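Is this the right way to post structure tokens for a design question? Let me know if I should format differently. Anyway, here goes:
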């Protein structure tokens, strides 16, 4: 056996290199964004003229219909189910990722509390915001426990997002590499939120261009912990949805809404500059310490082609 034969034999044993299936990525994104915007755009149309004319996000006098907001959040989930059944046709087996180690559930519930504590301390220390805890309400630790319980009740809403973004789209972008794939996903996720930004629901009364820049930066940075958890847990969209829900509910109910005397672009926990910069530092530390093989990531998160809908919880 000569050297050429050895090389050919070695090459034949190597697994095929995963590539991005851009057709599936594009169709999914069109479906996910289109289905969501059908529900959201009618809610923001009255504010669009004001936003573009003044260059400032509106400050809605009243909240839009919660039903339409909730329905729009299921756009990525519906798009992912359509793709799995009729386009990419891998079925639903293993697409939820419910049965995972307790360690990942601990991370999903505990990490948001530690992160929010870091945002509050940094806001205090920098002087950009002041945390005001109301004396007539429950202690903050108990409010966090309640938030965690509420987030479980609200889990279907988060699955509406993460079953699509982390469960379907992320595995198809990982051939780009975990970092580049996550950045692409973050940009798509930011575009999906555009009606929210234009309506003033996220950063009311702020310069429109600055709002877009800050939010896109936040969307990019906030995508990394969900990617890390999804990859570490072998593609669990369920765990990503838990972490996403606990963070959102805790931000809105437990603490960060009591940071006063500061611009929401800086002190908001939902994509504000302080929270984004803290998360960027943590991301750089984690990705600098934990080295993962790209080939292992792809293998764990590839679509399961041999399953039926009855196996989707696994």
């Amino acid at each position: 056996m000569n050297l050429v034969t050895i090389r050919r034999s070695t090459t034949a044993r190597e697994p095929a290199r995963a590539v991005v299936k851009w057709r599936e990525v594009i169709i999914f994104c069109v479906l996910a964004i289109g289905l969501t915007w059908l529900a959201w755009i009618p809610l923001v149309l009255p504010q669009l003229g004001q936003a573009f004319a003044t260059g400032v996000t509106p400050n809605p006098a009243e909240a839009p219909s919660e039903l339409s907001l909730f329905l729009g959040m299921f756009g990525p989930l519906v798009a992912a189910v359509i793709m799995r059944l009729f386009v990419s046709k891998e079925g639903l087996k293993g697409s939820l990722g419910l049965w995972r180690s307790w360690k990942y559930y601990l991370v999903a519930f505990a990490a948001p509390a530690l992160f929010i504590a870091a945002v509050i301390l940094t806001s205090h220390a920098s002087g950009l915001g002041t945390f005001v805890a109301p004396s007539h309400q429950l202690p903050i630790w108990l409010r966090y426990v309640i938030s965690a319980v509420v987030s479980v009740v609200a889990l279907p809403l988060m699955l509406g997002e993460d079953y699509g973004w982390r469960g379907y789209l992320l595995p198809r972008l990982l051939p780009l590499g975990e970092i580049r794939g996550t950045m692409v996903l973050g940009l798509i996720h930011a575009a999906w939120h555009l009606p929210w930004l234009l309506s003033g629901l996220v950063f009311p009364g702020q310069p429109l261009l600055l709002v877009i820049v800050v939010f896109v930066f936040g969307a990019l940075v906030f995508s990394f912990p969900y990617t890390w958890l999804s990859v570490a847990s072998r593609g669990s969209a369920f765990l990503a949805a838990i972490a996403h829900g606990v963070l959102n509910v805790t931000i809105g109910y437990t603490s960060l809404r009591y940071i006063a005397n500061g611009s929401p672009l800086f002190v908001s926990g939902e994509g504000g500059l302080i929270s984004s910069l803290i998360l960027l530092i943590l991301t750089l530390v984690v990705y600098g310490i934990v080295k993962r093989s790209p080939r292992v990531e792809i293998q764990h998160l590839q679509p399961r082609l041999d399953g039926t809908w009855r196996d989707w919880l696994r």
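Format looks fine. Someone answered above. Worth noting: The longest helix spans residues 22-54. The two ends are 46 Å apart (CA to CA).
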